[in-house]
Write a structure and sequence with these properties.
Layout (H helix, E strand, L loop, with lengths): L2 H4 L3 E7 L2 E7 L4 H18 L7 H7 L6 E2 L2 H16 L9 H7 L11 H8 L7 E4 L4 E4 L12 H15 L5 E4 L3 E5 L10 E6 L8 E7 L3 E6 L4 E4 L2 E4 L14 E8 L2 H25 L4 E6 L4 E3 L1 H5 L4 E6 L5
Antiparallel strand pairs: 1-2, 2-6, 3-5, 4-5, 6-7, 7-10, 8-9, 9-16, 10-13, 11-12, 13-14, 14-15
Bound molecules: adenosine-5'-diphosphate and magnesium ion (MG).
Protein name: FAD:protein FMN transferase
EC number: 2.7.1.180
Cofactor: Mg(2+); Mn(2+)
Length: 326
């Protein structure tokens, strides 16, 4: 029996965080599966923007009133999110919460808010109005109505943590899929060359079919798209990635972008940033970053990829496209 046929897959799935979480292992390891499940459930309790009892909700409820003490890990993630927001202030903003709540895209919203509402919210997303006290581990939003929203970064942080947890449970190969965020651990025991083949979703279809497959060592694949949460008025699509400068869903040539790298939290941030930059400037940004690749699908349904995907570098061994631009 060859090595490839010796292995089975053990797939566990559970609905959580508004998606279906899926964990694939190649050896039976129930304690690892339960650990991941418990961890995600705990994280949902800490970070959900929609649960009134989450730590995040507590910080938001205390905006303009007082600071809130949080755990080390929670403080770490919020600190990262604020730092990325300052670095990419044209696009990524962790204070986007008020606008997300006003638009309600993906949560039953179906109309354009008034300009007054948007102007009001735009005053609540200034990054110098978050106070982080590292010594006390406290977070203070200084104006009433301010709201942290970790929706564009938290899953990346969870994926990074899960990889460590799996390794601690003796797992050497596995895939965790948090919905739009796929993180791979170790080598593929089912492939002779040990590489993984990770499918990039075709945004035109809802059945999850792929438009390309990337051959890679263990990496994280984070995809942001505008075809899942949106509403339409006439021919205009209002989707859930909001421009922190205008308060409106951003117009860009990108329909979907996938970031491929080692750190999932960074990948989450870059997927949002690249969406705003558009495929050309997004590609330029990623081409300058070491060990990061990206695949864009634009409005004309064309694939745009970073240089490393053409040249084979740093663990990513090119891709096969299932279709040409059409
Ligand atoms: P997906 O839901 O496809 O993973 P993202 O990772 O881009 O998409 O995250 C989108 C979520 O992030 C939104 O639902 C909202 O909660 C939040 N968000 C929207 N716009 C921004 C922004 N400009 N900066 C940071 N977070 C954002
Ligand atoms: Mg994301």
């Amino acid at each position: 029996m060859s090595n490839a046929t010796k292995h089975k897959k053990y797939i566990s799935q559970f609905p959580m965080m508004g998606t279906i979480i899926s964990l694939t292992l190649f050896e039976k390891n129930d304690s690892a599966v339960f650990d991941v499940y418990d961890y995600l459930q705990q994280m949902d309790q800490v970070f959900s923007a929609n649960r009134p009892d989450s730590v995040l909700a507590k910080i938001n409820q205390n905006a303009g009133k007082q600071s809130v003490k949080v755990s080390k890990k929670c403080f770490g993630l919020i600190t990262d999110a604020v730092a990325y927001s300052k670095e990419y202030s044209d696009s990524f903003n962790v204070l986007i919460g008020p606008l997300v709540k006003t638009w309600k895209i993906g949560f039953g919203g179906h109309q354009i808010p008034s300009q007054d509402e948007i102007d009001h919210d735009l005053k609540l997303i200034h990054l110098d109005e978050v106070r982080l006290n590292q010594k006390q581990r406290t977070v203070y939003l200084t104006k009433k109505g301010m709201q942290l929203d970790l929706g564009a970064i938290a899953k990346g942080y969870f994926a990074d943590q899960i990889i460590h947890r799996l390794a601690n449970h003796g797992v050497t190969s596995g895939i965790i899929n948090l919905g739009g965020n796929v993180q791979v651990l170790g080598q593929n025991p089912l492939a002779a060359n040990s590489l993984w083949g990770i499918g990039i979703r075709d945004p035109r279809y809802e059945d999850g079919r792929s438009l390309a497959v990337v051959h890679t060592t263990a990496k994280t694949f984070v995809t942001s798209g505008i075809r899942e949460r949106y509403f339409k008025i006439g021919n205009h699509i209002y989707h859930h990635i909001l421009n922190p400068q205008t308060g409106y869903p951003e117009k860009s040539d990108v329909v979907q972008v996938t970031i491929i790298t080692d750190n999932s939290e960074l990948a989450e941030v870059l997927s949002t940033v690249c969406f705003f930059r558009g495929s050309q400037r997004g590609k330029q940004l990623v081409d300058q970053l070491p060990n990061v690749e990206a695949i864009f699908v634009n409005q004309n349904n064309e694939l745009i990829t970073t240089n490393g995907l053409e040249k084979q570098r740093e663990g990513v061994y090119g891709y096969e496209s299932y279709r040409k631009a059409n």
